[in-house]
Amino acid sequence: MATRRTLEFLDGQKIKYAVIRHSPAHSAQEVAASAHIPGRSMAKTVVVQIDGRLALAVVRADKEVDMGLLRAVAGANFVMLANPSEFVDRFEGCKLGTEPPLGNLFGMDTFVDSDLSENEFVAFNAGSLTDVVVLKFSDYRRLAHPILAHISAGAGKQLKDLHTAQI
Question: How sure is the predictor about 162, in pLDDT bands with cuts at 50, 70 and 90?
């Protein structure tokens, strides 16, 4: 079930949204397929370390976070994927890997790839393996206050090049 915290946050901000239940899925592309949502509209949330601070990087389901681009956008010296042990307790009520792209709800900056802003709607994990929230991207932007920038690479790029970036 979608986390109460996420839904209360949306309700408290008077955001119109829909929750779609689907069969259990783990990757963003699997979630999109299971929920019958185009991959270009499904947001994949990645927890990263930016100069030692946790942040969220959000890209389309069919893309990967380009750590070099994210480092440049953040004006950081060092960016890397966060280890789950660093954030397992940070996302109250969420299953690991289903963190919603609402960094402000969890005290983190949120960087969103500009490709997602081209869609009228955005869908994202709602804290469980079986629930997706769908809302207008304009509402998401107003709610989450993300930093919009180009931070993605095509899914074909080698992951080893994407895990860490430093000067």
Answer: very low
More confident call, 22 vs 159: 22
β-pairing, 53-60 vs 109-113, is parallel
Q: For the residues of 94-133, what is the DSSP string, one character each? A: PPTT---S-GGGGT-EEEEEGGGGGSSEEEEE-SSSSEEE
Rounded to whole angstroms, the Cα distance separating 141 from 159 reads 28
CA distances to 56, 134, 155 from 158, rounded to whole Å, are 21, 30, 8
Q: What is the CATH number of the domain that holds 160?
A: 3.90.960.10
Number of domains in the chain: 1
**Range with the lowest mean pLDDT among 2-11, 15-24, 45-54, 100-109?**
2-11
Identify whether the C-beta of residue 113 lies closer than 8 Å to the C-beta of residue 150. Answer: yes
Spatial distance between the Cα atoms of 34 and 144, rounded to a whole number of angstroms:
25
The pLDDT of residue 165 is 55
Q: Please give the residue range of the domain that contains residue 61.
A: 4-166
| Closest among 147, 135, 151, 146 to 6, alpha carbons compared | 135
Gap between the Cα atoms of 74 and 137, Å rounded: 22
